[in-house]
Design brief:
This protein has 770 residues and is α+β, with helices and mostly antiparallel strands. It contains 20 helices and 28 strands. It is 35% helix and 23% strand.
């Protein structure tokens, strides 16, 4: 529950003191709940503009708390001095924060927080550990200019807020888009590449860097609007027949950004930055009096005036005015055009950084959402399928997941292609690849080249795809690799490679968790089967039905058990069995410790019964055995009884003892229900307890129902199934049913009683005299 702080009457005090917090369980679903909580709090405070950053950072920290601390966690939101401070505090102060690439080889850590937040840190106390981060209040001056300073002065003092945020993003991601924007990132992966203009490097003082890619500007509505306004302004100021904004591409080509007048219908042909006038190298405007200028020729103009659009030493594009008449423009026109180009350059740079930030946020949101999806399943096959389908088609055309174990080499576990018709050919190609994907470090993989020629032919163009491989490393162990591919002519952007690498780190932990869970489930299931009886004997004159449902997903052994078995023959009678025993019990807790007591109880019951020990004697001996286990012992409730056939086969006689167990119920043919045993102390608490038996004559048509508290304490909100004699009323409605039908009705009623799955084991035995 959120706990809003009191609001002071003074608005400034209100910002200083306003707080809200909520506590969440250690579960994958809690991460999404934490995100919704933070978004709602910021919306209530009127700070929706900061919500995206805050939600993404909270998602990282909440997942860290679930994955590494393994405890419940508290999310606190505070407004302090106008800043938004959010803290995620877990209950495991001694377990340190994992930092991939610094202190851990896998998993997720805090790099995203450094990219998003203005500041962050870790605080400890004796019982908890908290990671906090601060974001500036929306609308606050991030440039740090003093009050009253001019906008120009502030702009010169610090980069624009969007650029500052993009720079922080670049320090962590090193995206291609950051390099395109010309930001100084300080990250090796984000430095400009050497493939400058198809091998030709521009020299000169002003334009020594790779041109920025203009296609990003065409995706920005703000940039398109700015370019259209610039075209209209050029035609009005210079009286030109036409005007255009030409944008540079990474390979040096010029593409049309916006145009008007006679320039609207003009193709650019093969115009490149390298073919422009020398003035562009110095970042200066120029005037071309005739069509001898390459730009004028490409635009089919008689004369031309042009000025470069620059951003931090990079050529963004050209602002061009054209005329059909030679000698139309003078040097003064070029100077005016240069001033217009300076103005539009600022607008385009702002739009470029906005698009960069939008793209970066989109990818970061993708990674956060992908982490939630991966954390939401513990099925190994489903996890691998989810990884592949997250990659395709966002990052690659196809994806394959390999797994490896300590005893087996790399095995192709899953293949996914954007074109389903190519999936089979791709699988054959990967199966026949000459080498296994690298398991140590990410990088290009050329294994497809070694596949047999007939397999390559069947795979078609896929055989020539570009391929990258990323190792799956979890908890210091190599568990497989992810391989992604794109067509040969569709190069991988650096951003896609880095995001695939980030996704592979998170996928490795998810796959390993699913693998460990599968192994634990299989082990628990085997142990659970060993604790249940191999079969139910046939008892003359008695119908027997049993139900057992462990709680949860099978990852832990339950504490409930039951048994029905032969115990001996009556003295002087033939060697066919004439006595049987049954038991139903509930060990306090679950897991290995509870399983040890369950195994002890079930096997002791059979051994002691074979020694012809009475029911009270068996319970007394079992009580001493549990007490003898010391701290390893667990409390045990047990209902144990002996069944003896009646001479006239008119039902059976049952002598039973209820040691702290829910009382058994008897249903008569007329629909009456009564309890059949008196309560006695449970086992594992007191030494020297003496037990006694209650005798029950179960006549033809009568039903004895024995259950564990997973039935009576089945919860729906604040109600329990056993409240107000609920189980008695349920049993009364089973008049005339067989033992199997009674068991099925009780089982269905337990399942349907509450909307949530039961969190306790359910066991029941139904005996009906026939």
């Amino acid at each position: 529950m959120a706990r809003p702080g009191k609001q002071a009457s003074n608005e400034g005090r209100q910002l200083d003191r306003q707080t809200a917090s909520a506590t969440f369980p250690s579960a994958a679903a809690a991460v999404a709940d934490a995100r919704r909580f933070v978004r709602k709090v910021l919306a209530d405070w009127g700070m929706d503009e900061a919500a995206d950053d805050a939600v993404l950072a909270t998602s990282e920290l909440a997942t860290n708390a679930v994955a590494y601390a393994g405890t419940s966690f508290e999310v606190s939101c505070r407004l302090e001095g106008g800043d938004i401070e959010i803290e995620v505090r877990d209950r495991h102060p001694t377990r340190g924060i994992e930092m991939p690439g610094v202190t851990a080889s896998s998993g997720r850590g805090l790099p995203s927080i450094a990219r998003l937040a203005a500041s962050w840190g870790v605080s400890y106390d004796r019982r908890t550990k908290g990671v906090w981060f601060r974001l500036p209040r929306p609308g606050a001056d991030e440039g740090g200019a003093e009050p009253g300073a001019s906008d120009d002065a502030a702009a010169e003092a610090e980069p624009a807020p969007g650029i500052a945020r993009a720079e922080r993003a670049a320090r962590g991601f090193g995206l291609d888009t950051v390099a395109e924007a010309g930001l100084e990132t300080g990250v090796p992966g984000a430095q400009p590449r050497d493939d400058r203009l198809g091998g030709e490097r521009l020299d000169g003082d002003g334009m020594g860097e790779t041109p920025a890619a203009g296609d990003r500007l065409l995706r920005s509505p703000a940039a398109v609007e700015a370019m259209e306004d610039a075209v209209a302004a050029v035609r009005e100021v210079l009286g030109a027949d036409g005007a255009a904004v030409l944008l540079t591409e990474r390979d040096g080509r010029l593409i049309m950004g916006a145009s008007g007048g006679t320039a609207a219908e003009m193709p650019l042909g093969g115009l490149t930055v390298g073919g422009l006038a020398p003035a562009v190298r110095a970042g200066s405007p120029w005037v071309a009096p005739d069509a001898a200028d390459p730009a004028a020729a490409a635009l089919r103009a008689g004369s031309l005036a042009a000025a470069p659009l620059e951003s931090q030493g990079r050529l963004t594009g050209l602002l061009v005015a054209v005329s059909s008449a030679p000698g139309r423009f003078e040097e003064a026109d070029g100077a005016r055009l240069g001033r217009l180009a300076d103005e539009i350059s600022l607008s385009l740079e702002k739009a470029r950084v906005g698009e960069l930030e939008r793209s970066w946020r989109g990818w970061l949101s993708f990674v956060a959402e992908a982490s939630d999806l991966l954390a939401g399943t513990l099925d190994q096959e489903r996890t691998m399928a989810l990884v592949a389908q997250l990659v395709v088609p966002r990052l690659a055309t196809w994806c394959a997941v390999y797994t490896v174990t300590e005893t087996e080499p790399a095995r192709l576990a899953y293949v996914w292609h954007a074109d389903e018709t190519r999936a089979d050919g791709l699988r054959d190609l990967l199966d026949q690849a000459s080498t296994a994907p690298p398991m140590d470090a990410p990088g290009p993989w050329n294994g497809l080249a070694g596949a047999p020629e007939d397999v390559r032919t069947a795979a078609g163009d896929t055989a020539d795809d570009q391929v990258y491989a990323f190792p799956l490393i979890a908890r210091g162990r190599r568990i497989g690799s992810i391989v992604i591919g794109r067509p040969a002519g569709d190069r991988f952007q650096r951003s896609a490679i880095e995001l695939a690498e980030e996704l592979s780190r998170r996928a490795a932990l998810a796959v390993d968790n699913a693998r460990l869970f599968s192994a634990q489930t299989a082990m628990s299931s085997a142990l659970q089967r060993s604790l249940l009886p191999p079969g139910i004997p046939e008892i003359p004159g008695l119908e027997v039905a049993v139900v057992y449902e462990p709680a949860g997903e099978g990852s832990e052994v339950g504490g409930d058990f039951y048994d029905v078995f032969e115990s001996g023959v009556r003295p002087g009678a033939p060697q066919s069995p004439s006595r049987w025993r049954f038991a139903i019990g509930d060990v306090c807790g679950t897991g290995p410790e509870a399983a040890a007591v369950t195994g002890l109880a079930r096997h002791a019951l059979r051994i002691l019964a074979a020694e012809d020990m009475s029911v009270p004697g068996v319970l007394a001996r079992l009580n001493r055995l549990i007490l003898g286990e010391g701290e390893r012992g667990r409390l045990l409730t047990l209902l144990h009884g002996e069944i003896a056939a009646r001479r006239r086969r008119d039902g059976v006689t049952i002598r039973l003892t209820s040691a702290g167990h829910p009382p058994p119920l008897v249903l008569d043919p007329e629909g009456g229900v009564r309890e059949a045993a008196t309560p006695q102390p449970l086992l594992g608490v007191f030494d020297g307890v003496e037990f006694h038996t209650d005798t029950l004559e179960l006549r033809r048509g009568e039903v004895l129902l024995c259950v564990t508290d997973g039935v009576t304490e089945r919860r729906s909100g604040n109600r329990l199934l056993g409240d107000g004699h609920g189980l008695e009323r349920l049993l009364a409605g089973c008049t005339g049913l067989s033992a199997g039908a009674v068991a099925a009705r009780i089982q269905r009623a337990v399942r349907d009683f509450g909307p949530e799955p039961s969190n306790d084991d359910v066991a029941l035995i139904v005996l009906r005299a026939s």
